[in-house]
Amino acid sequence: MSIIHKIVCKKTFDISTLDKRVSSIEGAKYEDRGEGVFYFWIDEKSTKGFDITLEKDFIEIRNTILSNKFDYDLTNIIVSEIVELTKGIILDENDEKIFSLPVFDNKRIAEIEIQDCKTIKALSKEHENITICGPIREVYFGKKLYEFFKEFENEKLKDTIFNLILMVNYLIPNYENGNVIEVGNSEDDVKIMKLLTNETDYLIGKYDYILLNTLDGQSIMITNGILNTMLPSNWKLVDEFTIIAPITTNSEWNKLLKNAKKFDLSSEFRNN
Questions:
Q1: Is the Cβ–Cβ distance between 137 and 169 less than 8 Å?
Q2: In degrees rounded to 5, what are phi and psi of residue 155?
Q3: Is the distance from CB of 121 to CB of 23 less than 8 angstroms?
Q4: Which of 81, 107, 212, 257 counts the most CB atoms within 10 A of its CB?
């Protein structure tokens, strides 16, 4: 679910030549992700950002589902700048030449935004987890969120979904991820587990298993779905799985351990 454009360059392109242009745009940032991939976004405003990839014979620009107008407007600026610097030719997703800029006009942007949100709504109705990678962190959609926005359509649906992405990425506490453990006998059989204690503040995302630390050192193993049914009173679920989890009281933590113990999957996991 990506929109891809290519720029076939007539002159050599140096990514550093974009520094001055990007720095002149309020909030614009980019990050070198290695292997010729560079990620661009508008801080506190982009829902997705976008990648440009420096290939041997061309430059690829990739926009992904649930990008917003800030992402597409920045794409237009960067594409225009690269074309000017390289005297390049722009090709659309069908490898057909584009003769005029911008590559995304306002009408097309509005149509893509609405269609993307309708797609996520439909997928959320059928699936337990759809993960969207935002500029700062992942956002999770699924059946519980579907129940929240199922009655929304068009602009209301778009505003609800985009506001959620912006909130999860920019407006929640930047707590640490904590200890994450990989367990498995092969690359195809790796389970990702998050260990929680009551000694620090966490942001909890989606994992294969959640491990709750106990005083006797025997961790209780549950899933995100189980955890979401028994959250301490000062923890908050902000999307399908993301939880803001500050240190709680000893009584709340002990209550969580007691409730989780009833659903402990440790024996089942070991036997498998």
A1: yes
A2: -65, -40
A3: no
A4: 212
Looking at residue 37, its amino acid is: V
What 8-state DSSP symbol labels residue 220?
E
Residue 30: how many CA atoms within 13 Å on its side-chain side? 26
Amino acid at 25: I
Number of helical H runs and strand E runs in the chain: 8, 16
Residue pLDDT, tens place only, 122-178 = 999 999 999 999 999 999 999 999 999 999 999 999 999 999 999 999 999 999 877
Token representation of residue 20: 């001055």
Please name the residues in contact with 126: beta carbons below 8 A apart, sequence gap of 6 or more.
none
Q: pLDDT (tens digit, 9 = 90+) per residue, 223-247?
A: 999 999 999 999 999 999 999 999 9
What gap in Å lies between CA 162 and CA 117, rounded to an integer?
Answer: 9
3-state secondary structure of 191: strand
Task: State the DSSP code for 167.
Answer: I
Specify the 3-state DSSP secondary structure of 30: strand
Which burial class, exposed, middle or buried, applies to 246 when counting CB atoms under 10 A from its CB (0-12, 13-18, 19+)? middle
Exposure letters 107-136 (e unless 16+ CB within 10 A, then b): eebeebbeebbeebbebbeeeeebebebbb
Whole-angstrom Cα distance, residue 110 to residue 107?
A: 5
**Rounded distance between C-alpha atoms, residue 56 and residue 84, angstroms:** 19
Task: State the DSSP H helix or E strand holding residue 195, giving kind and residue range, or none if neither.
Answer: strand 191-196
DSSP structure class, residue 96: P
Matching residue, tokens 């998050």: 194
Q: How many residues does the chain have?
A: 272
49: left (phi over 0), alpha (psi -120 to 50) or beta: left
What share of residues in the chain are helix, strand, coil (percent, to 5)? 35, 25, 40
